[in-house]
């Protein structure tokens, strides 16, 4: 009794400012989780460690709850890049791993993989839209479970789980941009192409499939093999409504982003609707947003464009850095760093324990300073700097300290995706003939330490990164 009381208060303290869930628990326990919809359950990461189980969900408790309330209709998605805290076998091997680092968005290609897997599990191809609940949904009671499976989708087969991109042509990460001139969102909410006679770059790039198709298809194959035992675990029919359990460490940023991404892509929700609903069911009133990290919000907007504007077209592109411009810099010795994921082979070697490493590609230096005015300074690299896929720009200022290590008195960063920032010409419109791109982010929209708003000293008004589509891509296409 005392241990249960201590656990209750510890979980409440650690979960704060999140809401706790206490419905359907046999002995009045609380779990750090919330239903985003009746098919999406967001949870803090469960643990097998006895001490941590006082303030985190115990794996056995979570499994007991799922078995009791969802029978054989549950499947767990683990987004933790850090150690999980439990073994897959503790959850009957019903675990799909898509790990990415805390306080960051995932590589964008993860999002279509996740959406295809979860739609196979909970509903199939774009079922009727689920509207946001006015109150947090509760798990069905054991005596109210609908056992009629005639209208319920079958469980995902081993061949389709996270291989759905091959089974649904609309989800293929395209490398053929020759037919995609200008995509624009019309007033009716549907995407359409306005057409163009300029096919120079598009035709040159149309057969450049190695970077995207090989790496992403390899990841699908790896994930499918990892998840292959799920077919025998779940079976071809289930006796309870399906639910996907999404968890990271705290069950907030990473899980919230991916849950909202599914609702935006598969249920037709707006970004605001999905994010507000997650905040309402997961957070205590007045304690901030559920998805609060600026870069994660940016990737949620990318998901909306991918699903509802450009007909699910995506591929990684390679670019060459042109310039970095810092507006209203506070210091003349400000340092700018550009990073991306190390290489495409990381994706071909996908496993739950091996995730793409972030690799620094460029660090600004005084030698690269080409223009300095009262309004901005501009850096242009003297050598070619190539970037691929998802990139991070970081701004920081270091104060030399003769008595100890150098002191960072200000730092901010932002993740962005080169595909979307290159081809988006304005909100709701994309032109796949663009050969140049630019990303601009203000200081207030940068992420601080560990994704929070604390960035230290104000360093600049905004940062602008410009690039050109890499010529090597055109050469590859021409050789083919």
From TrEMBL:
<dbReference type="GO" id="GO:0005886">
    <property type="term" value="C:plasma membrane"/>
</dbReference>
<keyword id="KW-0378">Hydrolase</keyword>
<feature type="domain" description="Tyrosine specific protein phosphatases">
    <location>
        <begin position="224"/>
        <end position="282"/>
    </location>
</feature>
<dbReference type="GO" id="GO:0051896">
    <property type="term" value="P:regulation of phosphatidylinositol 3-kinase/protein kinase B signal transduction"/>
</dbReference>
<dbReference type="GO" id="GO:0043491">
    <property type="term" value="P:phosphatidylinositol 3-kinase/protein kinase B signal transduction"/>
</dbReference>
<dbReference type="InterPro" id="IPR000387">
    <property type="entry name" value="Tyr_Pase_dom"/>
</dbReference>
<dbReference type="GO" id="GO:0005634">
    <property type="term" value="C:nucleus"/>
</dbReference>
<feature type="compositionally biased region" description="Low complexity">
    <location>
        <begin position="191"/>
        <end position="220"/>
    </location>
</feature>
<feature type="compositionally biased region" description="Low complexity">
    <location>
        <begin position="140"/>
        <end position="151"/>
    </location>
</feature>
<protein>
    <recommendedName>
        <fullName>phosphatidylinositol-3,4,5-trisphosphate 3-phosphatase</fullName>
        <ecNumber>3.1.3.67</ecNumber>
    </recommendedName>
</protein>
<dbReference type="InterPro" id="IPR029021">
    <property type="entry name" value="Prot-tyrosine_phosphatase-like"/>
</dbReference>
<feature type="compositionally biased region" description="Polar residues">
    <location>
        <begin position="156"/>
        <end position="181"/>
    </location>
</feature>
<dbReference type="GO" id="GO:0004725">
    <property type="term" value="F:protein tyrosine phosphatase activity"/>
</dbReference>
<dbReference type="GO" id="GO:0016314">
    <property type="term" value="F:phosphatidylinositol-3,4,5-trisphosphate 3-phosphatase activity"/>
</dbReference>
<feature type="domain" description="Phosphatase tensin-type">
    <location>
        <begin position="22"/>
        <end position="310"/>
    </location>
</feature>
<dbReference type="InterPro" id="IPR016130">
    <property type="entry name" value="Tyr_Pase_AS"/>
</dbReference>
<feature type="region of interest" description="Disordered">
    <location>
        <begin position="124"/>
        <end position="220"/>
    </location>
</feature>
<dbReference type="InterPro" id="IPR051281">
    <property type="entry name" value="Dual-spec_lipid-protein_phosph"/>
</dbReference>
<dbReference type="GO" id="GO:0042995">
    <property type="term" value="C:cell projection"/>
</dbReference>
<dbReference type="GO" id="GO:0005829">
    <property type="term" value="C:cytosol"/>
</dbReference>
<dbReference type="GO" id="GO:0046856">
    <property type="term" value="P:phosphatidylinositol dephosphorylation"/>
</dbReference>
<dbReference type="InterPro" id="IPR029023">
    <property type="entry name" value="Tensin_phosphatase"/>
</dbReference>
């Amino acid at each position: 009794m005392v241990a249960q009381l201590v656990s209750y208060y510890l979980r409440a303290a650690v979960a704060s400012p999140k809401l706790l869930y206490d419905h359907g628990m046999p002995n009045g326990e609380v779990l750090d989780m919330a239903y985003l919809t009746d098919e999406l359950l967001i949870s803090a990461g469960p643990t097998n460690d006895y001490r941590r189980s006082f303030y985190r969900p115990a794996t056995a408790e979570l499994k007991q709850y799922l078995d009791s309330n969802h029978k054989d209709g549950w499947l767990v998605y683990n987004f933790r890049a850090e150690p999980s805290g439990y073994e897959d076998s503790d959850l009957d091997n019903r675990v799909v791993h898509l790990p990415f680092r805390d306080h960051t968005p995932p590589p964008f290609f993860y999002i279509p993989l996740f959406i295809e897997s979860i739609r196979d599990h909970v509903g199939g191809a774009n079922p009727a839209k689920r509207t946001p609940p006015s109150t947090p949904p509760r798990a069905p009671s054991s005596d109210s479970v609908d056992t009629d499976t005639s209208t319920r989708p079958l469980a995902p087969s081993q061949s389709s789980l996270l291989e759905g991109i091959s089974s649904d042509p609309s989800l293929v990460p395209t490398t053929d941009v020759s037919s995609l001139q200008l995509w624009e969102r019309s007033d009716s909410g549907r995407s359409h192409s306005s057409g163009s006679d300029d096919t120079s770059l598009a035709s040159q790039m149309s057969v450049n499939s190695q970077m995207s198709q090989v790496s992403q298809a390899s990841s699908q194959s790896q994930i499918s093999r990892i998840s292959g035992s799920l077919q025998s675990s779940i079976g071809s029919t289930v006796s309870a409504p399906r639910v996907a359990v999404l968890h990271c460490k705290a069950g907030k940023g990473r899980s919230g982003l991916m849950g909202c991404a599914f609702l935006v892509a598969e249920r037709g929700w707006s970004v605001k609707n999905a994010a507000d609903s997650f905040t309402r069911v997961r957070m205590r009133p007045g304690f901030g947003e559920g998805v609060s990290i600026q870069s994660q919000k940016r990737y949620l907007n990318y998901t909306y464009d991918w699903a509802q504007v450009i007909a699910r077209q995506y591929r990684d592109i390679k670019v060459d850095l042109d310039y970095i411009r810092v507006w209203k810099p506070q210091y003349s010795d400000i340092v700018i760093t550009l990073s991306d994921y190390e290489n495409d082979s990381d994706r071909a070697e996908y496993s739950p324990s091996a995730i793409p490493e972030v690799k620094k590609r460029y660090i600004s230096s005084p030698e690269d300073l080409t223009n300095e005015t009262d309004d901005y300074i501009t850096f242009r690299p003297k050598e070619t700097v190539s970037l691929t896929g998802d990139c991070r720009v970081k701004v920081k200022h270091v104060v030399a300290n003769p008595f100890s290590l150098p002191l960072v008195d200000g730092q901010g960063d932002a993740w962005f995706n080169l595909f979307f920032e290159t081809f988006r010409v304005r909100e709701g419109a994309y032109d796949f003939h663009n050969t140049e791109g630019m990303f601009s982010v203000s200081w207030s929209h940068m992420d601080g330490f560990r994704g929070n708003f604390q960035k230290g000293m104000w360093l600049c008004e905004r940062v602008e990164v410009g690039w050109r589509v890499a010529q090597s891509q055109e050469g590859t296409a021409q050789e083919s």
